[in-house]
């Protein structure tokens, strides 16, 4: 099992190039960044569970710009999103950004995705929260077409474009990991993704769901777990997790736990 780090990378946190170098030197496999384009004032600082929303949610860097700095400063470190809110991006633009980052980083990018939970934030991007999961699927399917076809087209309910040319083509096409713990997340993984990115605290439930997902798939579906702790790494390995992400503090010089 690989061990990586995830963080809400705000402007107060260490530069991503320096953080990435520290992680690579400490033996970490990856660095993955969260995304919120903004938090609407009308939504307030209220979290998904109704509690207070942490300050770092409204202060993050753009993950793709920050990951470019991280990739340029390292040699082996895998870079990725945990997660990118695909429902807040134009798929043609996002496909080009990711293809460029994948190729310029030497094929080190992992695409963790989510549909978003902050309804006012989604609406500010013109996204209807009621149809966001269908929109996420169509945008991923459209992006795969852009990444693989010389003349790409896509015709869905919410995403529609006639044949277009777009380069570069990512080498390789980055793995897509669907984030979340909901009852239908496995269906989404099987339909249009390469793996799953859960963050459920019940590791017994995680073990059962990972086994059931792989049995349904008939293949070794990749699982990246978000929210690992050094003391739970052995349990996560036993649960069948392929990559465990330890969430670092959003402080000026985040402590990096030992994983040796």
From TrEMBL:
The Luciferase-like domain is annotated at 14-220
- Listed Gene3D superfamilies: Luciferase-like domain (3.20.20.30)
Q: Which PANTHER family match?
A: ALKANESULFONATE MONOOXYGENASE-RELATED, CONSERVED PROTEIN
What name does the UniProt record give this protein?
LLM class F420-dependent oxidoreductase
